[in-house]
Every structure is written in structure tokens, then in C-alpha cells.
Amino acid sequence: xxxxxxxxxxxxxxxxxKVTIHLDDAGKVSQSRFHIVEFRGFEKFIQGRPYxxxxxxxxxxxxxxxxxxxLASAKxxxxxxxxxxxxxxxxxxxxxxxxxxxxxxxxxxxxxxxxVSPDLLxxxxxxxxxxxxxxxxxxxxxxxxxxxxxRKFGQELIEVTAGKxxxxxxxIPGGINKNLSPEERDRFLKGPDPYNADHMVAWAQGAxxxxxxxxxxxxxxxxxxxxxxxxxxxxxxxxxxxDFYHGPLRAVDAQGRKVLPDVDYRDYLDHxxxxxxxxxxxxxxxxxxxxxxxxxxxxxxxxxxxTCDFVPTPLAQKEFETFKAYTKGKPNGMSLHxxxxxxxxxLHAGEVIRDLLKDKDLQGPNLVKKGTKTHNGVGLVEAPRxxxxxxxxxxxxxQITMANLIVSxxxxxxxxxxxxxxxxxxxLAGQKEITEGMMNRVEIAIRAYDPCLSCATHAxxxxxxxxTLVDDxxxxxxxxxx
Length: 482
Ligand code: MG
Ligand code: NI
Description:
alpha+beta; Cytochrome-c3 Hydrogenase, chain B; 4-stranded mixed beta sheet; 18 helices; 16 strands; about 45% helix; binds magnesium ion; binds nickel (II) ion
């Protein structure tokens, strides 16, 4: 008789979801699924609302990712007011960039220090009672302190550019509602150590060096865990550089060939389809050119470093070269290398923030532009977790009649399922007893993708995740809810 394993909730993941793994009589994996258990339909909720409210309203989608939604929405609305996608003033675009890179910095710092470092410091088999941030704080106080302060630095950048840490109103249709005063700038640029941009760059480099040292001593597990080929999707800057805020959309395959060659993201519907499967509320996006079976792709830090040609800041570029050399220039499909990629991005975000703060355009007086209204707007950003799409249609009364969102976590749906399947096949299959350490590996696979299940459900608040072991008659054998 076969078995089914359920894990719910998955700890140290943002939001609630569920993993089920079916093992047949021989203990072979017959099916594994990672899915969300609820869907709240934010796309319907904003219909009928005036478009200018969207950049503020959409922040209610998710308490974890409000800034990403705010900016993707604002970019869609820029097009509706006739100034997007390339018409913002230098001050407006740079203020939004500062907000966005501040968000990237705080989110990547939180993910590494709070969510991932316990797995690295204590190992996958450690007791969950110590394998958490409290354990890190007790044993590695310096790392925990850095994590807290780096996160604070990013959050305060958001506060000063968006007006508030959450539910800010900084980005408005066609621009931004404030610039950065010299006093505000100097808090981040010239603050006493360690609270300044130079120190944040040094700490980001330190976190990256910590990971590289760990990797050099643990190559078998970091390289061999959930390594599989895929396509990769992200925005890139027009010249092919890594960029989180704006540029054409690019996808490469497992060999690094451009399967989507720098297209205008406003045409995303020509290039990206979403498959619905009966067992999950989360859709399965794919590249139409390659079809449903072959067209699934990864987004996020690993994808971005696989799609871009270079990183436009010196310290992160040097690290990018080492990262690329590791796979001889080919795309990197190793799930746990997303942590490496994320830390290169953390360093890059720190460098960009430091350079942006020195840019006089942030004190410029021209904040908003006006244009001729249109009825259709598409906005994209590279959120910390990957490509985020917002698309609205509005009528002559300025009301939103259609909203379509594809969030980062949904883009990573198939890859997360593949990663879970890898663990089921390689760690759980054939085992008589499922240990805590084995369950942890399922979570570690999912955590590599830093999913936000709150976003994925399009929820109006925070959502609480489940692994179940089921037999071939559908009977639950083992279930974990933590
Ligand atoms: Mg959607
Ligand atoms: Ni979210």
C-alpha cells in the first residue's frame, strides 16, 4: 500500500500553502504537489475603482510585497495617463528606483539572514527549536544584528521615498509626490557607522563572502540539491544589464539561447500564457513560443543572473563573473545557488543605493508629467522574488474594468513543484520512516524560491502552508502542520 505525505504549514515561508507527496507500494513517488489552498480574487476587487487609486490600493494585496505592487501598478498607470513607459522625469524615475532598490535590499537581507541562514548554520537535520533566527541570534550574534540593521536601512529608504514603510503613496500617476531633501539623503549617506550606505555595501559583501565560504565547504549539497534545467525570464536594461525597475523582457533557455529576445513588456500577452490545473488555485505561466509542456520558466535572483549580460556596479559585477565562471558561462539551474545570486543582488542593490544617493536629480523640482489618456496600461518590475506584472483597462469614466496580475510566486509555480518533486524522488522515495530532517528538505527546496503565498493568493491580507503522505487509495498516512 502506498503513502501520502502532507506538510502544512511550511515554516519560514511568507504565507500559507500545502505540499502533498504520493508514494506507491514500492515507495516510488507517483505524484508531488505544492499548492495554495485559497484564492481571494484581488483582480475582481479593484474593478470599478478609479485608476489613480490603484497604486495605493494594490498594496493591500500583500503585507510582504507592498512596494513591488505599488511600483508595478504605478508603471501601468503611467501608461494610462500617457507618460509611460519611458516618459517620467529624471527625479521621479530615480526616486522610484531608490524606493525599489531599498525594497530589494531589505527583502533580500530578511530572506538571507532570517529565513536561510538557520538552514546553513545548523543544517537540515537540526532541531527546529534552534534552526531559526533566535538560534542564529544566540550563536551568531553579529549576523543577526547585521540582518536587523540592513533590513531597517532598506525600510527607512522606503519610508523616505514612499511616505510610509507600508501603504505609501510616493508613486503617483505620471511621477512621484516628493523628492529627497539633502537632510533625508545625508541620514543614509553620511550616518554614523554602521548606519550608512558604505557600511551596508560592506556588510552585503560580508554576507556574500560568508555564503561563498560555506559553499566551498559544502559543495555536494549546495550544488546537487534540486538542480534541474529550465528557461529563465526577467526584465533587463536596454543594454542587457541587470535591472530591477525597467527595460525589455528577456527569456533564455537552459543553454542560454534567447528564446524571448528583449521584447516590449506591454505585449506580454503575446508571449506568456497561463495554464490552469484543477488541483491548484495558482496558475502555471509558460512561454507561448515553447508551449505548455516546455515553456515553463524560473524568475527571481537566479533567473536574473542567467538572463542579464552584466551587472552595472563594480563589486557585484566582479561577483557576477565568479558566479558565471562556476557554470562556464551557461545558465545556472542549481536551486540553492539562488541564495548566491540573491546575495550578489543584495550587494548590487547596496551599490546602486549608495550611487543614487549622490545623484543631484533626487533633489530636482520636476516630479510629475502629464500626457494624453489611454485605456490600457501594463506595468512590470523585477520584484525581489521575480517578475511582477500588473495590467489594467479603464473606461471613459476612469474606472478600472479589467485587472490582470501575474505575481512573481506564480511565475515560479512550476519550478517550485519541480524542486519539491526532486526532494520527493531523491530524499523521501523508498524511505520507511519520514523524518523531520527529510521534511525540512522539502521546505528548503521551496524556500530557495522565496515564495510569497500571500501574493500568490491575491489575498487582501496575510495568509497562513501543509506536507501530506497519501497512499494509493488516497488515504492520508502522515501529515505535518507546524
Ligand atoms: Mg492573475
Ligand atoms: Ni507578497
